[in-house]
Amino acid sequence: MGVPPYVDDCGVFAGLSRFRTAFYGCLSARADALFERCDALLCQDGR
């Protein structure tokens, strides 16, 4: 499954990248583990 070519035209990936960077900056202790946990929860297939 690929990404449609028009998705990047809207700056979706740039916005997501800025959000992820800002969110990671808000985490203090164990930032890597917390970030990976949140990323896994948000990326799971809607079961």
UniProtKB/TrEMBL annotation:
Name this protein carries in UniProt: Uncharacterized protein
